[in-house]
Amino acid sequence: MPSPIAPDLVYQLTSVSDPSLSPDGSRLAFVKSRVDKDAMESRSQIVTMALPGGEAAPFTGGTSDSRPRFAPNGSSIAFIRSDDKGRKQLWVISTSGGEARQLTSVTGGAAEPGWSPDSRSLVFVSDVDPD
How far, in Å, CA of 80 to CA of 50, rounded? Predict the structure, then answer.
């Protein structure tokens, strides 16, 4: 009889989600997540790979990165990352690499990033106080 699934199995699991295909179809960005046993927290980062058949490699260095979205011109990836206060904010990074730049610092946090067709503007959703 097989052994039962132990609770510690959760620390061995890795999940992938939220794929974003580059405009020319040559690259894929997605989120890779796992649970950090020492911190008892979920960790996620943006991973990219060349298509077809490239190796997946970490692209961002954050611990709470999500929702990658390629710019229509393919030059940048917008994504969501928590700031120092734990609020999710909008960030952008060049597809050639380098440091990510934080674009927002909104009290209600940022979510659901989207690019304008000309890659010059971004839109996002945020909770706001109606007053």
Answer: 22
Nearest CA to 67 out of 84, 102, 92, 50 is that of 92
Neighbours of 100 (CB within 10 A): 20
Based on the number of CB atoms within 10 Å of its own CB, is 78 exposed (0-12), middle (13-18) or buried (19 or more)? buried
The identity of residue 47, as a single letter, is: V
User: pLDDT by residue (tens digit) across 67-121?
Assistant: 999 999 999 999 999 998 999 999 999 999 899 999 999 999 999 999 999 999 9
CA atoms of 16 and 34, how far apart (whole Å): 9
Phi, psi of 62 (to 5 degrees): -75, 175
Who's near 120: CB < 8 A, 6+ residues apart? none
